[in-house]
Design goal:
With 219 residues, the chain is α+β, with helices and mostly antiparallel strands. The chain has one helix at residues 2-70; strands at residues 72-75, 78-82, 88-92, 95-98, 105-108, 111-117, 120-125, 128-132, 137-140, 144-147, 154-157, 160-163, 168-171, 175-179, 182-186, 188-192, 197-201, 209-212. Helix content is 32%, strand content 38%.
Length: 219
């Protein structure tokens, strides 16, 4: 019985050793597999990230070019129109770019002419501007110069807004000018009826208020 018990313990120990060896060999195989597979997985992930980055860069370039290709660029454009009273006006520029999203024209070196009838023409020039055909407005600036054919005044102002449906020109960012009756320095101005009447208003140091009308207009 003693020998039989001893033999059983030996067999049990051998079984445990064999089991431990089998587990160790299985773990060793997994470690070897991970060592081979992990670098591949890392490369695949890195490659995927790089591919996505390149894809987004390419797509951004394509989208940008598509947007640019939809823009309408004009050299020396000249837009013609009439106000509600049938008086003609023109909106010209050195160049213009039409925004495909808004339909507005960005003007480079705009030059506007408002026909008052006969030889009376009010001319406006500036460094840049926006022509909104739908809203019937032209906003120009900076460095606006207005030569008013009705009153004979020459005005300078940072900004002018032209309502092409009425021919009125307004601005609220200050104005300086000179004409047949002297000089003017005001905070805001409005040119009505394509130069038939010019209204100045002021605040602070520019406390001027007045109306100018062309000679012989009865105003």
């Amino acid at each position: 019985m003693t020998e039989h018990g001893e033999q059983s313990r030996i067999e049990a120990d051998e079984a445990r050793v064999a089991l431990a060896g089998a587990r160790w060999r299985a773990r060793s195989r997994r470690v070897k597999l991970y060592r081979r597979v992990l670098p591949i997985i890392i490369l695949v992930l890195a490659g995927g990230a790089l591919t996505w980055t390149v894809f987004r860069t390419v797509m951004s370039g394509v989208e940008r070019k598509a947007s640019q290709s939809q823009e309408v660029r004009l050299d020396a454009p000249l837009f013609h129109g009439q106000d509600a009273q049938g008086r003609a006006f023109t909106v010209g520029a050195q160049g213009a770019v039409r925004d495909p999203n808004t339909g507005k024209f960005k003007l480079i070196g705009p030059a506007l002419k408002l026909n008052l009838g006969g030889r009376k023409v009010t001319e406006l020039t500036a460094d840049g501007g926006i022509y909104d055909e739908q809203a019937k407005t032209v906003t120009i600036g900076p460095n606006v110069r207005i030569s008013d054919g009705g009153t004979g005044f020459v005005l300078t102002t940072p900004e002018a807004v032209v309502d092409t449906s009425t021919g009125n020109v307004t601005g609220s960012k200050g104005v300086q000018g000179s004409g047949p009756i002297g000089t003017i320095n005001a905070s805001s101005y409005a040119i009505y009826d394509q130069g038939q009447r010019v209204v100045f208003d002021g605040a602070g140091d520019n406390k001027v208020k007045g109306v100018l009308t062309p000679k012989g207009s009865g105003g």
